[in-house]
Amino acid sequence: MLKNTIHLFLLIILFTAQCSLAASLSIGERLKLNSTYLNEEREIQILLPENYQSNTGATYPVIYLLDGDYNFHGVSGMLDFLANKAQLIPDVILVGIADKGTDVYRQYMTPAGLTAPFKKEDGGKAELFLTFLEKELKPYINSKYRAANNSILVGHSMGGLFVLNALLESPNSFENFVSMSPSVWLNDHEIMTKAKGFIGKSKHKKTSLYLSLGDEERQGVYGVLQLLDESQPKNIDWHFAHYPSENHNSVNLVALRADLKNIFNSWRIPNKKLETSMTPEKILAHYQKVLSSLAINQPIPTPSIQSAIRYFYRQEKTGDIPLFMGQVKKLLPASEQAFIMMQASYVGHYDSPESALKILQGSENRFEHSVEYVKSMAVAYMQLKNTKMAINYYTKALTLAKAYKANQWQINIIEAKLLELETE
Length: 424
What we know:
The protein is of the alpha/beta class. About 55% of the residues lie in helices and about 15% in strands. It has helices spanning about 1-25, 70-85, 100-110, 125-145, 160-170, 185-190, 190-200, 220-230, 250-265, 270-275, 280-295, 300-315, 320-330, 335-350, 355-360, 365, 370-385, 385-405, 410-420, and strands spanning about 30-35, 40-45, 60-65, 95, 115, 120-125, 145-155, 175-180, 205-215, 235-240. The protein has an 8-stranded mixed beta sheet with strand order 1-2-4-3-7-8-9-10, with helices on both faces. A hairpin with a 4-residue loop joins strand 1 (about 30-35) and strand 2. Helix 14 runs parallel beside helix 17. The longest helix is centred in the first third of the chain and has 23 residues, at about 1-25.
């Protein structure tokens, strides 16, 4: 009896610990907004880029994700690899818009004049919800975070129908509309009546529409495609992708990944092009144009930075680096920190750790809030065999990483370095 009681007690402790761990791994920040237009409280989930606090001058595109509680974890994980780790697209702010139950969600996604699925008594309120997004949510995000003038509305199924209707109602409310497997079929394809009166006839600034479909036959999407193909609207840059190996519930993540790579297709310069035809000056010119076209200001991808610094060493022109770094500061200010760290890395390898540390110390007061910059200084001290200062800077980096709620693998790396230094 006593053995069973102890076993049960241990199970309870283990379960409680697992629940606490699960709670600590929640993604982003949960906020509540009181909506005047909807006359109710709405919840949103905000996920900032991992380096948001380290790059204090950077601005970011914003993804507004409908049915946020259902889609948030999948999309946030995909973005972590696509933007943060692979750097195939810029870092973005993710805003997940929570629903308030299936029936309410569907009613808000249904255009006015139509009735929600399986609820003929529920008239559509999509236009009202779009007003909430435009007049309340977007201004709130723009005022509280460093949001660029570059927003993407993303929806799937009924959310996809809402995105399509938002384009028809307010084509310049977002820069990009991503509609995945939209429920065009609703009310016998009634949305097509509005679409026929708008596409190719409305005068508005150019915008982009990304449509996708899985292995489905009755969504009604091909009617939209036919209309777009026949009208060839000059102010809608539209794209369509069919994923026959995906079903209705799996297509959204696959399609969104491809659409984001398409939206930001100029962000990454392929390695072969970097190696064969991109001088440092060309890299600067390329990203000046890209950042301007995307209306953002943030560090460019690490491979492009490395290619630029490596060029001077391969061409034996290291004396030109100071002049180039001055151009970086002037033309790509958000990338200056990353260029300084890369320069110090090469100097530490080809010249001396003392010279690398001197470069880093020259801008330490400007970037002491950056985890990566502080880590770079710790590395320099390690190369100089100054264990005490290396521990000091890794400890500072760890404190910053925890304060910024960095990914656990980043914290693990710093802790492992500290353990290595402390056991020497």
